[in-house]
């Protein structure tokens, strides 16, 4: 368990983070595309952002940051509401561990350690082969609209910072939705056995 001195230091850090001046930062979606894979449809995306001084100080002093990547796939319909084909989200936890002096990215039970914050952020900004539509989901030969975004989940920040996030944009780091068109590749038709070939095989 952390000692009283460590707890007091963390509280002072939080107090300083909460009381600072406001600022504005945004995540940009540089690229996003879908491709067919054996298991379904996967997303590749690239984000661009830097942590402002407040966020960088927070994570370096033991405050974990939770980033959420969200994806939607819809089929526009002129005669009715758009049909939502798929909706996915994944949460990535960015944290710092003082004893090994390493930054860590965690997604579920998968963890990666890094020697520097910049190395961790470089991996966080890249999404590779994320399965967003499983093979069993029906996707017709039609035009779809895909959308992806990344945001910092302020609901998972410590309570004092959540209060500050209501008035300070330093904690509201997110991207707008990046929307792009997608058409599922057509599956090749199954071979049809003709009567002539069947009779030839019987001979």
Number of E-state strands: 9
Q: Could you spell the SSE succession in H and E letters?
A: HEEHEEEEHEEHEH
The number of helices is 5
**Share of residues in strands:** 35-45%
What is the approximate shape?
A: elongated
Radius of gyration: 23 Å
Kindly state the percentage of residues in helix: 10-25%
Which structural class matches the secondary elements?
alpha+beta
* Strand neighbour order, sheet with most strands: 6-5-4-3-8-9
| Unreliable stretches | 4-24
- Sheet of most strands: 6 strands, antiparallel
Q: Could you report the average pLDDT, rounded to the nearest whole number? A: 83
State the end-to-end distance.
81 Å
Topology, element by element:
Blueprint (H helix, E strand, L loop, with lengths): L3 H16 L8 E10 L2 E9 L4 H8 L4 E11 L7 E15 L4 E6 L2 E5 L2 H8 L1 E9 L8 E10 L6 H7 L12 E6 L11 H8 L1
Antiparallel strand pairs: 1-2, 2-7, 3-4, 3-8, 4-5, 5-6, 8-9
Task: Walk me through the structure.
The chain is of the alpha+beta class. The protein is about 25% helix and about 40% strand. It is built from 5 helices and 9 strands; from the N terminus they run αββαββββαββαβα. The protein has a 6-stranded antiparallel sheet. Strand 4 (about 85-95) and strand 5 form a beta hairpin. Mean pLDDT is about 85; it is low at about 5-25.
Brief rundown of the structure:
The protein has about 200 residues and is α+β, with helices and mostly antiparallel strands.
């Amino acid at each position: 368990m952390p000692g009283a001195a460590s707890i007091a230091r963390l509280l002072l850090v939080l107090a300083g983070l909460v009381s600072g001046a406001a600022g504005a930062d945004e995540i940009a979606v540089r690229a996003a595309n879908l491709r067919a894979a054996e298991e379904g449809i996967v997303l590749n995306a690239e984000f661009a952002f830097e942590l402002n001084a407040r966020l960088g100080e927070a994570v370096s002093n033991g405050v974990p940051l939770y980033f959420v990547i969200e994806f939607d796939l819809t089929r526009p319909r002129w005669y009715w509401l758009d049909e939502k084909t798929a909706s996915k989200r994944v949460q990535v936890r960015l944290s710092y561990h003082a004893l090994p002096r390493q930054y860590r990215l965690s997604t579920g039970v998968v963890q990666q350690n890094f020697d520097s914050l910049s190395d961790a952020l470089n991996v966080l900004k890249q999404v590779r082969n994320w399965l967003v539509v499983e093979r069993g989901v029906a996707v017709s030969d039609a035009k779809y609209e895909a959308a992806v975004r990344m945001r910092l989940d302020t609901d998972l920040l410590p309570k004092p910072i959540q209060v500050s996030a209501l008035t300070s944009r330093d904690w509201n780091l997110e991207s707008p939705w990046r929307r792009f068109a997608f058409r599922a590749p057509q599956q090749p038709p199954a071979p049809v056995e003709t009567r002539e070939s069947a009779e030839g095989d019987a001979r």
